[in-house]
Structure formats: C-alpha cells, structure tokens
Amino acid sequence: MTAGKLRFAAIFKRLLLPIYIRYRRRLAIGFLALFCVDLLQLQIPRILRHVIDGLAQGRANASFLLFFALLIMALAAIVTLCRFLWRVHIIGFSRILEKELRVRIFAHLLTMDRPFYNRWSAGSLMAHASNDLAAVQMACGMAMVAAADALFMATAVVGFMLAINVQLTLIALVPMPFLAVATLLLSRLMHRRFSRVQELFGRLTEFARNCLVSMSLIKGYCLEEEEKKGFARLGRDYVRNNLRVAMIQGLMHPAAALAGNISSLLVFYFGGRLVIEQMLSLGSLVAFFSYLAMLIWPMMAIGWVSNIWQRGLTSLARINNLLAEQPLLERGAGSPLACLQPGLRCHGLSFTYPEAQTAALDKIHLALGPGMHGFTGRSGSGKSTLCRLLARLYPVRPQTLFLCEHDLGLAAPAAARPLLSYVGQEPSLFSASLYDNIVFGRPEATRAEVEEAARLACIHDYIQTLDQGYDTLIGEQGVRLSGGQRQRIALARALLRNGPVLILDDALSGLDVATEKKVMEHIRKHWQNRLVLLITHRVNLLRRADTITVFDQGRIVAHGSHEEVLCTSSLYAAMEEKQGNA
C-alpha cells in the first residue's frame, strides 16, 4: 500500500470506523435493501427476453403478456419499497455521521487554548465545520451507496451477460481498462485542486466574517470600496479554482459515457451479426442490451464516485489535521480548587510565548496577599502576560506560580479557572440579551443576583431606561452599546461569578471619572479579604491600590505603595507627572 492509502486507513480507523461499528445494524438493513433492489432490477431483462422470444416464436397471447406485465409491476412495487428503506437507513446514517463529527469538532475546539486560536482563523474553522463536513457526508452517503451499488451491479450484470454469450461480453468489456486508467489519473489531479478550493473557502469565510464584525470601522474609514474589491478578488480566485475542479469533473463523466457508448456500438455490430446468423435469439440480444445499459451506470459511477471520494478524502484529511491539534495545556477536569487563602506568589517565574524570540516574563519574584494590587508598565512589559498565566491560558512550570496556595503548574485548567474572574479591555459579548450576557458566567444565579451585580458595575440604572430592560438584545459583540457600557456588562458578569480572585486588565478604560470612582468603591467594599489585580496605566486608579508593581521588559522594576514606587521608579514618576499635568 502507498503512504497515502496507509494514512487514509489510519484516519478512517480513528474518525469513522467507531461510528460505522455503532450503526452497523442500520447499515446492514440499508445495504440489504439496496442489494434487493439490484437483484430485482436484474430480473427485468430476463422477463423481456421471455416476452420478446415468445412474440418472435408466436407463443405469446393476451394472458401471457398480462402475466409478465403484472410480474413487472409487482417487482417495481417491491423495488420502490426497498429503495425507500436503503435511502432512510444509509443516507440517514450519513447525516448521523455528519452530526457526530460536527459535535466532535465543536467539543475539540472547546478544549483548545490560546496558541491554537492564534494559528487558526475563525473562517478556516467554520469551513471545516461546514464545507468539509458536507463533503465527508456526501462521500459516506450517496458516494458509498453508488460505489457498493456499482460494484454489485457490475459483477452481477457481467455474470448475466456471460450467461447469454461469453464472446459478446468480452467484446463489450474492451473499453474498461482505458476508463480505469483515465479515472486514476484524473482522481489524483482532483485531490490537489479540491484542497486548494477548500483552503480558499476558509479564507473567503474569514474575510466576510471580519467585515461583518468590523462594519462600523469600515464605514468610519470609508473603506467600503476597498473591502468590496478585496472580497471580489477572493471570490474570483475561488471561482477560478472551482472551475479547475469542474474541468476534472467535466472530463470524468464524458469519459465514462464514451466508454459505455463504445461498448454499445460494439455490441450492436457483433450482436446483430450473431442474431442474423441465428447464433443468438432476438430476445437474448435485447436482454443483453438491457444488461449493458445497466452496466453503463457502474461505468459512469466510477468517475462520479471517484470525484466525490476525492472531495471527501481531502476534507476528511483536513478535519483530521484539525482534530490532531493538541493544546499546550494538559486537558483534565478535576474538582474545582478551593481557595485556601486569596493570594498570588511567583518564584522565578519565566515565560516565553510560542514562536517568540524573547521572554515575556523573566524570573519574576512576587508575593501578594488579599487586597487590591495594581500592575503597570509600558505596553508589552509582561503585566497582561502574568494575568493570562493566572487564567491558565498558557502552561507554566511547576513551583513557579501559585494562586490561592495552589501550584498552577500542576493544576488542571478546568479546576483552577473557577478561582478567578477575568475582565479585559475588549470584553467578549454575545449577540443575546443583556441578562444572558451577565448571567453567562454563573447560569444558576437568580434574577436578584444578576441585578445586584449590575448595580455594583454601575450599569443597572442604564438598563432600566431601556424599553425591554434586561431582555434587550445588544447585537454582535454588543454593537448597540458604547465602549464603557460593554466594559461594565463584562464587569457585572465577572462580579456575579463572585470568585476569590478578580483580574481587571485595563477593564475600566472606557469609563468616565465619576463612574470609575463608584465602581472602584463598590469593588473595594464588596471584595474585602479577596485578591483584586488591577492592570492599568491610570495613576488615579493605582493610587487606590494597596500595592503597585511596575513591570519593564518582563521584569519587576519597582514594588510598593504609591509613595514608595513614586520614589523608586522613574517610569512611574513620569506617569504621575504627565497625568497630573494633563
């Protein structure tokens, strides 16, 4: 076997074989019905042979013809029933297989970490879950039926043809080797071209998605024409490559049809001579032509099935590549960790992002207890990186980072994450109601608890002014809200979770001074004896913190109270002077 065939066998065993085994009874019933259809259809030419020979020999009468007419009608009724059965069971199975693969892909995506989503675009993932799955479903549905049907029919038809006349059968099969070679060559070319088509579909989907979620920005910069041209370029490239695939498809079907027509021409000439020489009855020739007509479908199916299989194999390989991705963080559930003592400890913590050349954190030593602690520093200095490590978005070495007295290097992400609530500068909101967005982090919360969290985030009064209140839909990424309102909705969601650790990563940048002051007062009042990490460049917020930590180039360059850091850090002093004079 070639490397490609071995790889496909491994992919099939890993992804599809368990589903086939689970639904083997359904498939057995479907294929039994399919083969019954084929066997019954093979009887029709034999009936025609008897009828035509009876007419030619003068043996036929009205009752003779009526009997065979009723027999054909009875066979047609049974064929209809069996055809319904195989469609329900086999095509239905292909839809079940598609559903199970889609669920598996979605479940796999939920386990992946930040580095994975940095490498894979949303458009590519959507293409895998739509276009690629559709191709696999088609290959495991109609293509599988057509392949089994063609193989069974071809074998049976050739057997019946041999029973009529061996010489004529061999003549009819002369074009077959040429069709097999042509199909093999075209299939290899199809695989390469269809891979390119699927890749372009992912890029096209991603482009459209980016435009839809950034529509306000596009209109604000008057870039409608440029985006339209960019989309048109991708569309033309996609169409051009689809046409290249269509060229191969267009060759496969005519090649099979040509082989079938050549076979018909040969049978017409040589079979006609046998009838003239009375070496073959007219009824036998008609039956032979009927069988040959049945053989043309398997011949044509070779090209069609090969085309669908190549699409399916290409898509299955792409899906396998996606499912083969593994998160850097070890998967695992485990019971949620209990908060032994709110606090943070770093012991020589170092971290480098995947594919980065320099360390984002370099031998950090830090110990923080309950209270509000501020982090500041230049952009890219490491403060947000530390928060991402606390949120278990990236792996850390054991014995270097502790949260609430738990070693995060050994804790499963699903067990450690309930300890904290994280709010970023760009909050993630859903195209749902305000209530659904707030309650997302704690679905079992009561309405009163949701409203209390909104009050603490200073967004409740605004929600009350809306016609539908908490049931108001906010659109994609909260497009109907201002930046500050989106941040307060995300903050309410985090406060509702009520964890022992709260991380605010520049999460109040969109708030006015008065609202910011109220929010900070609420947090300090209701989050006493807990750990609050405040990442910001705003000195008026840092003044309220119990300690301030200044980062620079992945290291801690100053730590202490506002007055202490002001004396020891020139960077912080410059921030104080600049913002104080602003």
Provide the descriptors you would attach to this structure in a database record.
about 575 residues; alpha/beta; ABC transporter transmembrane region fold; Rossmann fold; six-stranded mixed beta sheet; four-stranded antiparallel beta sheet; 21 helices; 10 strands; about 65% helix
Describe this protein's structure.
Helix 2 (24-56) runs parallel beside helix 6 (142-164). 33% of the residues are buried. With 582 residues, the protein is of the alpha/beta class. The N and C termini lie far apart (74 Å). Strands 6-7-8-3-9-10 form a 6-stranded mixed beta sheet, with helices on both faces. The protein has a 4-stranded antiparallel beta sheet with strand order 2-1-4-5, covered by helices on one side. Helix content is 66%, strand content 9%.
Structural class: alpha/beta
Could you report the average pLDDT, rounded to the nearest whole number? 84
Number of structural domains: 2
Gyration radius from CA atoms, angstroms: 35 Å
Itemize the secondary structure elements and their pairings.
Elements: H1 3-22, H2 24-56, H3 62-111, H4 114-119, H5 122-140, H6 142-164, H7 166-172, H8 176-213, H9 215-220, H10 224-276, H11 282-324, E1 344-351, E2 361-368, E3 371-377, H12 383-390, E4 401-403, E5 406-407, H13 413-416, E6 420-423, H14 434-439, H15 447-456, H16 460-465, H17 483-497, E7 501-505, H18 513-526, E8 531-535, H19 539-542, E9 547-552, E10 555-560, H20 562-568, H21 570-581
Parallel strand pairs: 3-8, 3-9, 6-7, 7-8
Antiparallel strand pairs: 1-2, 1-4, 4-5, 9-10
Helix pairs in contact: 2-3, 2-6, 2-11, 3-5, 5-6, 5-8, 5-11, 6-7, 6-11, 7-10, 8-10, 8-11, 10-11, 15-17, 20-21
